[in-house]
Structure formats: C-alpha cells, structure tokens
Design goal:
mainly alpha; 3-stranded antiparallel beta sheet; rod-shaped
Length: about 425
C-alpha cells in the first residue's frame, strides 16, 4: 500500500511503473511504455476521488484502483472508495451496469463478493443498508444465473429426449410401407401403415371374389330340362292349319272327278255336284290324315330333341366336371395368400405398437415432464428477474452519493473535430 501511495506522489505510471512524460500541448502526463495518460490534477491528493471517478468511467480500472486504494489508506470507511473498489473488481464503469442480471452474472466473482463484504464491514453504519442491498442484488443475480443454467440443462435434456424420440420414430418408419408417385419422382414418399395395407388387400379380395362368383354363376348348363322348357316356353308358337290348299278343292279334285264321272256317262250337272261332294269328303279325310301324321312327326321330333338334349347335357356336364373345383381354387388360393399377407402385416403392426408403447412411451413421458419443469423454471426465473429489478431500485434509492454518468472534457482542444457529413 505504501508503494501505491508513493506512485501517486511520484510521476510514475501506476500501470507499468514507467516514468511519465509531460505533454505541454495536451496538458497531460503520458506513459511512453503503455500509453496511459493522466491529467495534471491526477497527482493532487485533494482530488483523488474525482480522478478515480473519471478513470473508472473511461475504463482505466488499474488507475482507478490505485486511487481508491490510496483513498482507503487514508479513510477506510469512505463510501465512494469502497463502492469504487467494487466497481473496479467487477469491471463496471458504474452501478448502472448492475441493472441487468445477465450482465451482472459476468461480474459476479468471488473477489467482488469479498469486496462487498469488506465494504459492509468497514463502511459507516448509515451506508451498511446500501452495501447489504448490493449483496442481496448479487445473490439474486447468482440465483437467477442458477435458474438460467437449470433452464439450459433442461433444454439440453429435452433436446436429447427429442433426438431419441426421432431416432425411434425413424426406426418405426422403417416398418411402414413407402411408395413413390411414378408420375412425380421428386415428390415425398407416401407412407402407409400395415393396417391400411391389410384393409386395401381385403377390399381387393372382396371385389375379386364377387367377380369370380359372377363369372362362374353365369356358366350354367344350358341343356338341362328346366332350361330347355323355359327356352321353349319363351319362343312364339304358331297354330297349325290342317286345311287343305284352296286349289285342291276348287280345281284339281273337282275337275278330275267331274271328268271321270262324265266319261262314265253321267250328266254334267250331276257329275259336278257329285264331284264337289266327293272332293269335300276327300278333303275331310285328308285333313284327318294330315293331322295324325303331323302329331306323329311332332312326337317323333320331340323324342329326338329330348335324346339330343340329354346327350348334350351329359357332354356339357362331362366337359365342365371340374368347374366347381376350379371355382373353389379361384377363391381359396387367393384367400390363403391373403391370410398369410394379413398375418405378416399384423405382425408388423404389432412391432410398431410395441415400439410406441414400450420404447417410445418412456421418452415421451420424460419429454413431457421436462417441458413442465421448463415452464415452471421459466416462471420462477421471471419472478427472480422481477425481484432483481426491485432490489436494484431499492439499492439506487439508498445511494447516498449518486454517480456521475457523463465524462467531462477538461480541454476543448481534446475534442475531435466533427466531420461535415456526420
């Protein structure tokens, strides 16, 4: 401490210990080794606090530290010096930098806490409330930092849980069926659940079975008796007219009989009457004969058609003897393939459900718990920040010596000329 005081009395640089040079133009002391500058007033002991205040406002913390240590050696309970030492070790130019807890976290070091405790122990009684409130402020910043760190750790844990869930989701996606649109190769893959694929296969089989049943249902024996009778009943029937042709009555029969009777010597009138009567009788007899003959023909044809129908029916049944078996094969073989496919698909669905329930569920629950913890910690952190702001306002109210926030310029010639376009 004695060496520091002597540095203030001698024109030596407090930063590097080099000999200062006087700059007559700027009216300042300059260190040729480290480039630090000091006003003439710096080395006057009656204005040490003012010089230290200006040094700390321009960021020359080492010079301010020397001045505050010099002042505390003379007056250990000096409020400005005690506060200045806290600012020096905190690397802050004013207590206004303590208003933001995030900035204060970078300044909250064990050395700063020691300096605050030192100020509480060595300050005047009326100043203890100020430094105690500052200690509370730094403690609140420490608690706020712990809350932010906890939030950071929770988000890291949440991210890890989500990455695990994504890995499991990708593993589950491998069990899904993926299709690509052939018309648009650049489109995304279409994913289908095994249950959906099974439903599509069952629907296709139902349509296929209906089609097969319709096809085989239409393939009936057309030569059965019932089918033949139904076919004959639907055909239009015509009534058979057994009347002899007109020329048989008027021309051929009567003419021949009349000629025959005239040759026998009969009177032409009687021959004509007898020929007409005989032709009429012949016509009746002929009609009976024709009707009998036609019925026999119909019966004969009916017997022939029935025998032909029976032959065709037997032949058709023989040719289509395996139709029922083929129908069963057409239905059962695809049904068996469908059953095997459904077993495979349902087993795949079981694996997906197992991944969702046994593997995914713990990670999902843990991620939900972490999310709840993050929300609770966020609310707690917001309350801490509100409390921090309240403590800072109380500390400012207890400040007996308000700080100067502006940096005065002692020499107008030190001001830089403002450019025209600025």
């Amino acid at each position: 401490m004695a060496e520091n005081i002597s540095n203030l009395k001698k024109h030596t640089c407090p930063t590097c210990g080099g000999q200062l040079i006087v700059n007559e133009v700027r009216k300042m002391y300059e260190c040729p080794f480290c480039g630090v500058t000091f006003d003439y007033e710096y080395f006057r002991e009656d204005d040490v606090l003012e010089r230290a205040s200006r040094a700390i406002r321009i960021g020359e913390f080492h010079s301010a530290k020397e001045a505050y240590e010099f002042m505390l050696a003379k007056e250990p309970s000096n409020f400005e010096a005690l506060r200045g030492m806290i600012l020096v070790y905190a690397g802050a130019r004013s207590t206004a930098e303590f208003a933001d807890p995030k900035k204060l976290m970078t300044k909250n070091t064990p050395v700063v806490e020691e300096k605050i405790q030192y100020a509480i122990e060595h300050c005047l009684p009326e100043h203890q409330s100020y430094f105690s409130k500052m200690k509370e402020l730094f403690d609140a910043a420490h608690v706020y930092e712990e809350g932010l760190n906890k939030s950071k750790d929770l988000r890291s844990d949440q991210k890890r849980e989500y990455s695990e869930m994504q890995r499991i989701e990708d593993k589950k996606g491998e069990l899904l069926f993926q299709f690509r649109d052939p018309n648009d190769p650049a489109a995304d893959m279409i994913k289908m659940h095994p249950r959906s694929v099974a439903g599509c296969l069952i629907a296709l089989y139902v349509f296929y079975a209906i089609f097969v049943l319709l096809i085989f249902g239409a393939m009936k024996n057309p030569y059965t008796k019932a089918t033949s009778e139904k076919t004959r009943s639907t055909k239009a029937t015509t009534k058979v007219n057994y009347t002899m042709p007109e020329y048989f009555n008027n021309y051929m029969v009567e003419k021949e009989l009349k000629e025959m009777y005239e040759k026998r010597g009969m009177d032409p009138a009687e021959a004509s009457k007898k020929a007409a009567a005989d032709a009429k009788n012949a016509q009746k007899n002929m009609q009976k004969y024709v009707a009998i003959d036609y019925n026999s023909i119909l019966n004969k044809r009916s017997e022939e058609s029935e025998s032909q129908r029976l032959e065709k029916e037997k032949k058709w049944n023989k040719d289509h003897a395996n139709m029922e078996r083929n129908r069963m094969l057409f239905l059962l073989i695809p049904a068996g393939v469908l059953v095997l496919a459904c077993i495979y698909l349902f087993h795949r669905e079981y694996r997906i459900k197992k991944i969702e329930t046994e593997t995914m569920k713990p990670y999902r629950n843990r991620a939900s718990e972490i999310t709840d913890e993050i929300l609770k910690n966020k609310e707690s952190t917001n309350r801490m920040k509100t409390n921090f702001t309240h403590l800072y306002q109380e500390m400012k109210k207890l400040d007996p010596v308000p700080e100067k926030v502006s940096i005065p310029v002692t020499d107008k010639r030190l001001r830089k000329p403002r450019k025209r376009w600025e």
